[in-house]
């Protein structure tokens, strides 16, 4: 948003973060009040950034609705339609400043959209990540089986960052779906491996949504 960019420009022009760094340097040199000034600067910066984030809530919600439309079907489609109706009532007609109640309602809508995004847009990528992580550390396979695995591995290298930040395209979603189907056809043992991996994740108090970070840390598997 232009308004958000203007607000960020003010933060940059005031050199708030640089000021905090200088105060911390003074504190390390023994200046007694510098640490307090740095802390106060952090609070001021956090407040300014939080306000900028709030300014962009409505555009974010509109963008996320548009992203979900091509893929939300059946129950997910009904949920998306419900969110859109509520947004038209709460978000679009609300005062620009936004009361505390309006902020809470918009935050709740954004949380619902995030849950829906996990079920609809991120699911194909996370399914493929679960496929990949379910393979044992070492394994053998036919030429076709290994070709399916390599295809998934290369696609996940491309998508690793996207698994966490959600910045992926419809084309990448379609490729993830196709790669997942190919793996499931090529490897008869994969459903059992997937179930074992899911049980390991749950036993460790983790979820399938954590797999993007796992892949980035682990590196390629051996065959």
What's the helix and strand layout?
Elements (H helix, E strand, L loop, with lengths): L1 H13 L1 H13 L5 H22 L1 H12 L5 H17 L9 H21 L2 H12 L8 H23 L4 H17 L3 H14 L7 H8 L5
Helix pairs in contact: 1-3, 2-3, 4-6, 5-6, 7-8, 7-9, 7-10, 7-11, 8-9, 8-11
Query: What would the principal axes of the Cα set say about the shape?
Result: globular
Radius of gyration: 23 Å
Structural class from helices and strands? mainly alpha
Report mean pLDDT, rounded to a whole number: 86
The percent range for strand residues is under 5%
Could you give the count of β-strands? Answer: 0
Helix content: over 70%
SSE pattern: HHHHHHHHHHH
Largest sheet: none
Walkthrough of the structure:
With 223 residues, the protein is mostly helical. The chain has three domains: 2-55; 57-120, no CATH class; 123-218, no CATH class. Helices cover 77% and strands 0% of the residues. It has eleven helices and no strands. The radius of gyration is 23 Å and the shape is globular.
Quick rundown:
With 223 residues, the protein is mainly α.
What are its keywords?
about 220 residues, mainly alpha, 3 domains, 11 helices, about 75% helix
